[in-house]
Amino acid sequence: MKTAPDFPDVNYNPPSREPSVWSRVGSLAMYTIVPPAVIASGCWLAFGFAAIAPSFLCALGIDLIVGYAVNGYQTVRLEKIRAELMKAQMEYERGHMVGVSCPQCGQRNIVPLDLSIDGFECDKCHTKNKLYYDFRAASTMDLNREEVMKAAEQRMAEMDSRTKNAWDSMNEVLK
Length: 175
Ligand SMILES: [Zn+2]
Prior knowledge:
Layout: H1 21-47, H2 52-96, E1 97-101, E2 108-112, E3 119-121, E4 128-130, H3 145-174
Antiparallel strand pairs: 1-2, 3-4
Helix pairs in contact: 1-2
The chain binds zinc ion (ZN).
């Protein structure tokens, strides 16, 4: 029995490693404190001691705004990529996958529409199930309602006249 291969799950989130306190302090210093400090040092050398505080605060403000904007942009971009992946998976499933209920627990499983696959393992209870395909055909010929009604009326009239004829001939015999 060949079972369905596992389909990659786009909702999968890699286990996030909690950053340590020191790495947090490090990145805070690196990206938030160091650039304004460098700018403030430059302003100190260029314009004297009084320039340190205003230049540091100004650079820190710009740094925070830019950091916030970049972070927001990246979040939006990641969300967009995730949404596109989900859409692609849904479209793929619509064309290449089929939903089947597990005969053991009733859980709906999505299996590939592939005639070489004749089994699947349930996502929930892990029972190995055999898979049978059942295909049916139906005519797509359009039925014209008026034509159908006319044909039915004609058939009724035919049956009527046959009954009448039978009645008449019976009366004929009984006369
Ligand atoms: Zn099951």
